């Protein structure tokens, strides 16, 4: 089971966004921002806008609002850059600002969410409580546009607390400590939510990949 979880997580990371270590670039950009180098703003946006937009979109589920969240994030960050104490990386700090801005927008709406201990629905139909071992399917089966769409849709159906932790940890590739800092949680709480998110997502997608596998065998 642990091996399957690991494969499942790795596939999602590479399918959805991929992860690049940005710490060295962050350090250079931060120094230039503090020195008043305006070109550093452009470099910061170029380096982080895609990942911040991805996080915002998965939180607010609206492209226009996600764009607004990212714009607000950079404006907030650039205005308060001299107050940034540097205890975390620039990227982690930007993620936290993005999370807070998105959370403010989420409070205006009640999102469609699903908890692991509640009935799960996909396209109006309740999914069976099963954990089909679809993680053992060939990697090319996950590379189709349809499969990637289903995975992203599954993530969007997670409850807000689970979706946020899963996105930051497994999609964006942040460490458990970084996620805990962004969300103001203990590392243990992050691990618990991540485990629940993975279980819930596996179950949400089980129906789709079960049908896929059966179709390939017929």
Describe this structure in words.
This protein is an all-alpha fold and 218 residues long. It folds into two domains: 2-16 and 111-217, Winged helix-like DNA-binding domain superfamily/Winged helix DNA-binding domain (Arc Repressor Mutant, subunit A); 23-106, Orthogonal Bundle (Rna Polymerase Sigma Factor, Chain: A). The chain has helices at 2-16, 23-34, 39-60, 63-79, 90-106, 145-156, 160-171, 176-183, 187-217, and strands at residues 121-122, 125-126. β1 (121-122) and β2 form a beta hairpin. α2 crosses α3, α7 packs across α9 and α8 crosses α9 (187-217). The protein is globular and about 55 Å long.
Keywords, separated by commas or semicolons:
Rna Polymerase Sigma Factor, Chain: A; 9 helices; globular; two-stranded antiparallel sheet; 218 residues; disordered N terminus; mainly alpha; 2 domains; Arc Repressor Mutant, subunit A
């Amino acid at each position: 089971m642990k091996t399957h979880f690991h494969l499942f997580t790795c596939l999602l990371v590479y399918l959805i966004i991929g992860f690049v270590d940005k710490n060295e670039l962050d350090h250079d950009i931060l120094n230039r921002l503090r020195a008043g180098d305006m070109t550093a703003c452009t470099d910061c946006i170029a380096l982080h806008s895609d990942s911040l937009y991805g996080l915002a979109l998965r939180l607010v589920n609206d492209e226009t609002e996600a764009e607004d969240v990212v714009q607000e994030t950079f404006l907030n960050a650039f205005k308060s850059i001299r107050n940034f104490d540097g205890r975390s990386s620039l990227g982690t700090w930007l993620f936290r600002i993005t999370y807070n801005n998105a959370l403010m927008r989420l409070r205006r709406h009640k999102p469609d969410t699903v908890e692991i201990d509640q009935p799960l629905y996909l396209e109006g139909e309740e999914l069976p409580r099963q954990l089909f071992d679809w993680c053992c399917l060939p990697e090319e089966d996950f590379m189709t546009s349809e499969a990637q769409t289903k995975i992203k849709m599954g993530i969007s159906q997670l409850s807000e607390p689970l979706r946020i932790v899963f996105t930051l940890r497994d999609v964006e590739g942040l460490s458990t400590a970084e996620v805990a800092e962004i969300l103001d949680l203990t590392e243990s709480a992050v691990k618990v939510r991540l485990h629940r998110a993975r279980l819930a997502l596996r179950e949400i997608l089980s129906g789709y990949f079960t049908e896929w596998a059966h179709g390939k065998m017929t």
